[in-house]
Amino acid sequence: MRYRLTFVVGLAVGYVLGTRAGRERYEQLKKSARQVAQNPAVRNTAETAAQQSREFAGKAYHAVSAKVGDHMPDSVAQRVRTLRHHTNGTGEDDWGTSNT
């Protein structure tokens, strides 16, 4: 019983101290992540990756549809078409990034 009580007290003290340090550390990580996300090089790389993934999805769709033919479910075909034409002609996607 004494060991359980010691364990529970240690757990409670660790939780209290951890939450104080944890919140501060969380805020530091959040600030760092925001700075990285706002970095122009990171944004350009993310935009390039998004564009390449859209192109790859289109190529994959054509390759699969050529082999599968009319057996492609309409829901899959519609989703791929939506991904390929995601920008709606505005030059930006839903996340506010340009289609470069």
How would you summarize what this structure contains?
The protein has 100 residues and is mainly α.
Q: How can the largest sheet be summarized?
A: none
The Rg value, from CA coordinates, equals: 24 Å
**Portion in strands:** under 5%
What's the mean pLDDT score? 76
Order of H and E elements: HHH
How many distinct helices?
Answer: 3
The residue ranges in which pLDDT falls below 50 over 5 or more consecutive positions are none
Helix content: over 70%
Counting helices, strands and paired strands, the structural category is mainly alpha
Distance between the termini: 65 Å
What is the 3D form? elongated
How many β-strands, per DSSP?
A: 0
Architecture blueprint of SSEs:
Blueprint: H1 2-37, H2 40-68, H3 74-84
Helix pairs in contact: 2-3
Please give a structural write-up.
- The chain has helices at residues 2-37, 40-68, 74-84.
- With 100 residues, the chain is mostly helical.
- The N and C termini lie far apart (65 Å).
- The chain is elongated, with a radius of gyration of 24 Å.
- The mean pLDDT is 76.
- Helix content is 76%, strand content 0%.
- It has three helices and no strands.
- Helix 2 (40-68) runs antiparallel to helix 3 (74-84).
